[in-house]
Amino acid sequence: MDLKKNLPEIFDDFAEGRRNAFLSVKEQKDKNIPVIGIFCTYFPQELAVAMGASVVSLCATSDETIPAAEEDLPKNLCPLIKSSYGFGKTDKCPFFFFSDLVVGETTCDGKKKMYEYMAEFKPIHVMELPNRVSEDGLVLWKNEIIRMKEKLEEVFGITITEDDIRKGIQVKNAERSAIKKFYSIMKADELPVSGMDVQKTLVGTTFNFDREAIPAQMDELIKRIQEEGTCLEKRPRILITGCPMGGATEKVVQIIEDNGGWCVAFENCTGAKAIEENVDESIEDVYEALAKKYMKIGCSCMAPNENRFELLGKMIDEYKADAVIDMELSACHTYAVETRRVKKFVNDEKKIPYLSIETDYSSADIGQLTTRISAFIEML
Ligand code: BJ8
After folding, report:
1. Which of 323, 325, 342 is nearest to 334 (CA)?
2. Nearest CA among 253, 255, 231, 254 for reference residue 244
3. pLDDT at res. 5
4. Pocket residues for ligand 1 (CB within 6 Å)?
5. Which end of the chain is more exposed for a tag (fewer CB within 10 A), N or C?
6. Is the N-terminal amide bond of 353 cis, ω within 30° of 0?
7. Ligand 1 test: best mutation among 58, 243, 295, 328, most atoms within 8 Å of CB?
8. Domains in the chain, please, with CATH?
9. What pLDDT does residue 18 have?
10. What pLDDT is stored for residue 277 in this prediction?
């Protein structure tokens, strides 16, 4: 029994959720539910849940609006930044349009400078993220989370109590645990679904505004996969790391799986980077608990970035990866610089092959990527 023939409609539900999200965000507005647009996994979504707001991701994944963005921004800038700015500037993204407040963080230089221009046409609050994980960094981030809460109270004329935040933490913890349980099905020796199915589901869940419904949905999905699925043929198991993935860059997953590999794990911001760790509910001070959780995200904006290597090593072992493919978006300097250390770690410590690829949101490099990736998989 071929699972891909057998279970497509389950994954279609998530793809449908993604398509319908534009309508759902309009419904949120009609019901007077505040909508917060975000650009990064460092935003503590627990604050939004605490005040009953919906969160939409504004990180764009297509090259449609890049020409408009390049009227204001340099060409030699990461496509995620240009595309996201372009969708905002041209009003082509309903998520951006319906966002009452946009939140950014001082992550990479390109993003933080872009926010200065974006502020000319949209209310935007920028959280000051430290660029190293340290005691002082933790204090700064905790204070920024408090400042964020106060900003939300001011903009929306509400009060967010610590009990509200505690409830938000419980909801988000349950959601993260459920999503992690879903993608952990790829730890199995006999894979029940393809990496593309996992990737689409991970992206699909971000468009579900009913966060409390996610655990039951994930349980149902896992149950159906267990009952109706069967194993896929054995192939080299690839772990993906690097920049966030989605939309146009799903071409990388497609190429890997069309050329003899399976993507078993995603150590990036679409995947495990933001989901793997929960907020410690035993910490009395909710702001400290949130600060500690989010400072564990292993983004290359941190220097040094030990947390990335901790998660990467753990995932290589747990998902029994045969190789790692590191996807960088063009002009993403922090991830590009980090490739040297990632290669060394993967080759020398984990003793498996490593390939770094650079891409953007166009389809111009599909031929070249196919040649490199298929040659890499062939030698595994
Ligand atoms: S926590 S990965 S979502 S910053 S790809 S815009 S880093 S130049 S997206 Fe990211 Fe938050 Fe980090 Fe995750 Fe800059 Fe690089 Fe572009 Fe990037």
Report:
1. 342
2. 253
3. 44
4. 40-42, 78, 80-81, 107-108, 110-111, 243-244, 269, 297, 299, 301, 329, 332, 334-335
5. N
6. no
7. 243
8. 3-162 (3.40.50.11890)
9. 63
10. 96
Strand partners, 358: 328
Eight-class DSSP state of 295: T
Does the CA dihedral 281-284-290-294 come out positive or negative? negative
In 252-320 the beta strands, taken as DSSP E runs, fall at: 262-267
* Residue 4, pLDDT score: 46
Chain position carrying tokens 């539900």: 13
Which residue type, as a one-letter code, is found at position 342?
V
Task: Tell the residue number behind the tokens 């891409």, with chain if given.
Answer: 359
Contact 274, 38 (CB under 8 A): no
Query: CB of 105 within 8 A of CB of 81?
Result: no
Which one of 112, 113, 297, 301 would you pick to mutate in the ligand 1 pocket, going by the greatest count of ligand atoms within 8 A of its CB? Answer: 301
Residue segments in the chain with a per-residue pLDDT below the cut of 50: 1-6
* Phi, psi (degrees; rounded to nearest 5) at 376: -65, -45
Among residues 57, 54, 283, the alpha carbon closest in space to that of 171 is found at: 54
236 neighbors 263 (Cβ within 8 angstroms): no
Give the amino acid at 33: I
Confidence check on the interface: ipTM exceeds 0.90, yes or no: yes
Interatomic CA distance for residues 34 and 49, integer angstroms: 11
Q: At what angle do helices 250-258 and 366-378 cross, to 10 degrees?
A: 50
- The continuous run of DSSP H or E covering 343 comes out as helix 333-344
d(CA 317, CA 297): 19
Q: What does the pLDDT look like over 309-357, one tens digit per residue?
A: 999 999 999 999 999 999 999 999 999 999 999 999 999 999 999 999 9
The amino acid occupying position 60 is A
Question: Is residue 369 helix, strand or coil?
Answer: helix
Question: Separation of 178 CA from ligand 1 center, angstroms?
Answer: 24
Region class of 207: left (phi > 0), else alpha (psi between -120 and 50), else beta: alpha
- C-alpha–C-alpha distance, residues 286 and 89, integer Å: 36
Positive or negative torsion for Cα 61, 6, 23, 37: negative
Tally Cβ neighbours within 10 Å of residue 120: 9
Q: Where are the beta strands (DSSP E) in the chain?
A: 35-38, 54-57, 101-105, 124-127, 237-242, 262-267, 323-329, 354-359
